Amino acid sequence: MIIDELNVPILLAPMAGGPSTPELTVAVTEAGGFGQLAAGYLTAKDIATRILATRAATDAPFGVNLFAPGPATPADRIAAYLAELGREHELGEARHNTDDWDAKLDLLTTDPVAVASFTFGCPSTEDIARLHAVGSEAWVTVTSPAEADLAIAAGADVLIAQGSEAGGHRASFIDDPTDDPTDPLTLLALLQLLRARTDRPIVASGGLATGAGIAAVLAAGAAAAQLGTAFLRCREAGTNPVHRAALPTDTPTMLTRAFTGRRARGLRNRFLDEHTAGAPAAYPEIHYATAPLRAAARSAGNTDEVNLWAGQTHALTDELPAGELVHRLAAETKSALESALSRRIKVC
């Protein structure tokens, strides 16, 4: 297992839409952690180029993350929401696609990487077998015990447990309002539930920004911790300036479908306040429809009309080189674990 070979139990979350770069992946990997490239929103040709650039800069193993495609959304489900947005904004085409799924799977089975990880669903048993046949591990992101059971049955080598604290999109297999949990599982709760039902390695993800937080999930049974928001302000990240500037604030976060049609956690702003209640479950249609207004907001430096994805601990982010951040977090984690072990525990 790749996780067992890491010098530092810290993984870079694959942040699609800009922040993920070969430079960031390499920096985390060279510091002893594990880097992943985000393939979401890219073509297979684009991600092949990024894989090549990453390999040119490091001999260490790394991973590539794919978005599992979902069904198309009926037009009548999104018509009212698009009409609402269209009264104020220029919209793009509300289209559905598979995010080049087949071509990306073909790429990863002809030019394999150490790990293929998956978000928004679980690949089939046959697809995971194809990855295993070329020497790749298959990691699946889950948000509930039921999803974990499906991933294990399909042959997943590692479960990435995403708690509700996490920034960006929820990785839930189904994002349907009728199936919404009223109380989505936090990371520590999810981790304990998964640890009680499987001995597969579990990577903990969601709201982790300090060594103490990493130590906590390791103590609870995680094999490693995956961090995304913590790396957004690193110089190697492709995070846009509007997003970078908004992170080190006390602005609260919230879950919303307003920008993309899929639940995601971001910094609260006017767009979220005005449109979260009416936003349908319609991904990726709403994502493409709102793309022009988000691009315009970024260009204008307007934080009220752009998706500022961030986890609940975003105020703790720092502007450091990624490798330096990994080293600092590793030292903090070691210190926190040693401190916890040194405390006296009385057993009655």
Automatic annotation (TrEMBL):
The coenzyme or cofactor needed here is: FMN
Q: Which domain of life is it from?
A: Bacteria
Gene3D superfamilies referenced in this protein's UniProt entry, alphabetically: Aldolase class I
For molecular function, the Gene Ontology terms on record are: monooxygenase activity
Key words, A-Z: Detoxification, Flavoprotein, FMN, Monooxygenase, Oxidoreductase
Which Pfam families would you find in this protein's record?
A: NMO
Q: Which reaction does it catalyse?
A: 3 propionate 3-nitronate + 3 O2 + H2O = 3 3-oxopropanoate + 2 nitrate + nitrite + H2O2 + 3 H(+)
| InterPro entries on file | Aldolase_TIM (IPR013785), NMO (IPR004136)
- PANTHER family from the entry? NITRONATE MONOOXYGENASE-RELATED (PTHR42747:SF3)
Q: What does the sequence similarity comment in the record state about its family?
A: Belongs to the nitronate monooxygenase family. NMO class I subfamily.
Q: What protein does this entry describe?
A: Propionate 3-nitronate monooxygenase
Gene source species:
Nocardia callitridis
